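Q: My labmate handed me this sequence with no annotations at all. I'd like to see what the chain might look like in three dimensions before we decide whether it's worth expressing. Could you predict it?
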Amino acid sequence: MAKTQLTSRASKPAPPAQKAEAKPKSARQSGAASQRAAGQDASRLIDERIRSLADWRGETLAAMRRLILAADPEIREEWKWMGTPVWSRAGNICTGETYKQVVKLTFARGAALKDPRGLFNSSLEGNTRRAIDIHKGETVNAAAFKALVQAAVAENLRLSAGKSKPPAKRGAPSTAGTVKATPATTSPGNATKPRKAKTKTKTGTVLLAGGNPQIAKGEGAAPVAAYLAALTGWKQDLGKQLDALIMKCVPGVRKAVKWNSPFYGVEGQGWFLSFHVFTRYVKVTFFRATTLRPVPPGGTGKEARWIDIHEQDFDATQMTKWIKQAAAQPGWMA
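A: Here is what I predict for the chain of 334 residues:
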């Protein structure tokens, strides 16, 4: 199998969206046009992400992107979760995340895929996802990777076909009222989703999806301390390290827990930082971050920016610089 070198060929920018015709369109035509426009916007944002990296990570992401799109002509590009490149067909195939020392391609259903070449080398402990971490100077077997993408598409199509149920036969007994509705949760900007199972710590604190503690809203150090105490494993170590670093950088820092996340601010200036726990990383968000130098890598066109910190991926020196810069300017008033 030939391997592909991760070369520095620049990704071509997406063509601009065509102007809408003056004549009215059908609902199907309008929907298709909206999908094309959304795809062009996502491709443009991914182009910008690659250009902004301006180093081996941009070259690597561009090379893997070409392989993904070459694997299946019907794969679509999307921009989700406020700043993550996503490739999909009949569901998410994989994401393309970039960190200080690695480009990570996370396959949404990687655990269900055959990987004879052993490309998956990260996120191996879960029951659903699998990831490929690519470090500087590494190569990926192009044929094996394209086969993996094609297998992911096939798995999505199989699951999508399984969701389509034939209509009930005429005269069949009604089952109305016999099936209980699945509880659901909603979050701003997201569709309603089935509620995920919750677990509890030894102290009785409920852990939500990703192991994030469910802590009642409250001002002061006590709610934050309760949040940190409920964390587990390396995430607790990182949470306590962040808390201690913030207090060291900003004497008298204001603390609170809002929306199951610790918030840090300066009295009279608003909040400058918050963090939240997910399954594979801890997301640290700076609310007024466009003036920070360097600007944290995650974000949208708005002022908030963030960094996803994985296990053993914490740069205390850079975090110290960001905290001091963020605390010295007006924050978010909530």
